[in-house]
Design a protein that fits this description.
globular; mainly alpha
Amino acid sequence: MISNDIILNVSSLFMLLFLLSWGACFFIFVYRRLDGPKVGRDSLIYFNFMFFKNDFLSNIALSFLFFGYMAAAAFEYRREFNDLILMANLAGGMSLFLFAIYGRCFYKGIIDDKKPFFFIKIFLTEFDLSFGSTFLWLSRLTYVTWLLMLIRG
């Protein structure tokens, strides 16, 4: 069915463009940084790269992912007008953003970005009480909020 809602169409177009651009960044990462695909590991290593490295490709890839997620949240809201789903998606986007701030600016450990589950290990097992870890704790809180709202909604 074709929609006449301009905001719905624009948000879906932006979502498509941002996520295709994010996919292009993944393609560049796999073939320039990893020297070819590593089956079953390349996508997880890509998330390590996005959350913990601070160079042009990782910055632009994280920006495309974040803005694509926010455009998807706007699209979902315009499609159903469900405030709970909108709040859940905004919490999920904030969780990505806060974890990226923690990983890029405040993580002080050794970045073992060649292990596929490194970012998940840091997200689940890092227990620090410094100022920078506030971003990690807020990321966890918004992620749990996102999950609970999606299960409830």
